[in-house]
């Protein structure tokens, strides 16, 4: 079995697409995935399974759809999460103000849209298929939060730097016990 990370978009955000984490773990175990671990209630999974990331993402999306939840899923190898965290172009001390937008497909950054909605101090950078966003005024209050897909030109899911750090910590702990 291979270790994977799944990032679910929009699960349990603002009361929409609600699914308790125990039910999500049970659903994943029903797909044959093992040692399913969740982080927070916002759709971060670490699990072991056989299959390609695309096939695993599709299987989980279909299982969620059968429950009436249209939730895009991105499955990544652990090293991609580690590379993302290591490649952050912004100050790690601002971990809750720095966000990584993981793209579901290759995209092109539209700086005009970014410039139109950015607040003073907002910054964006693209590194290795990840859009990095620094919003000193807070991501939730930023006009960019609802326009990231227009800026990226592709579907995406966002995690703050603090969550990525915790995922890497959990991955490291898992790999030490394997």
TrEMBL record:
InterPro entries: DUF1697. It comes from the Bacteria. It holds the Pfam family DUF1697. This is Uncharacterized conserved protein, DUF1697 family. It comes from Alloyangia pacifica. The lineage of its organism: Bacteria, Pseudomonadati, Pseudomonadota, Alphaproteobacteria, Rhodobacterales.
């Amino acid at each position: 079995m291979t270790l994977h990370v799944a990032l679910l978009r929009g699960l349990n955000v603002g009361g929409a697409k609600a699914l308790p984490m125990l039910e999500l773990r049970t659903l994943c175990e029903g797909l044959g995935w093992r040692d399913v671990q969740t982080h927070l209630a916002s759709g971060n999974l670490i699990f072991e399974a056989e299959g390609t990331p695309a096939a695993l993402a599709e299987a989980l999306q279909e299982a969620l759809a059968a429950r009436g939840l249209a939730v895009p899923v991105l499955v990544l190898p652990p090293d991609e999460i580690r590379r993302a965290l290591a490649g952050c172009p912004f100050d790690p001390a601002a971990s809750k103000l720095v966000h990584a937008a993981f793209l579901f497909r290759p995209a092109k950054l539209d700086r005009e849209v970014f410039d139109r909605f950015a607040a003073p101090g907002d910054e964006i950078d693209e590194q290795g298929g990840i859009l990095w966003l620094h919003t000193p005024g807070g991501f939730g209050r930023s006009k960019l939060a609802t326009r990231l897909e227009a800026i990226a030109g592709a579907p995406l899911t966002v995690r703050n730097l603090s969550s990525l750090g915790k995922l890497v910590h959990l991955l490291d702990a898992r790999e030490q016990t394997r």
